[in-house]
Amino acid sequence: MALATDLIEQRLRDGTASAQETVAILKQTASKARLEKEILEKQKELIEAKTESLHSAKNLGELYERALNAMRRYSGQEACDDDDY
What we know:
Blueprint: H1 2-14, H2 19-74
């Protein structure tokens, strides 16, 4: 496939490519560009999802810490800071 593509590209440069060869290269290029665009969009979505997950994990950790401190105060203990561990 690569050799055929190289041959057609060379014919395009020389001006000897047929209309069918030209259309074939154009279709291949358009398909490749579309696929690359889809891949980039999916990578962007993945990065956004990972970022959201990190924020959620941080918020959950803070929520657990507040809950533990509230339980300590309720049981008569003094709330702990992160430095106490």
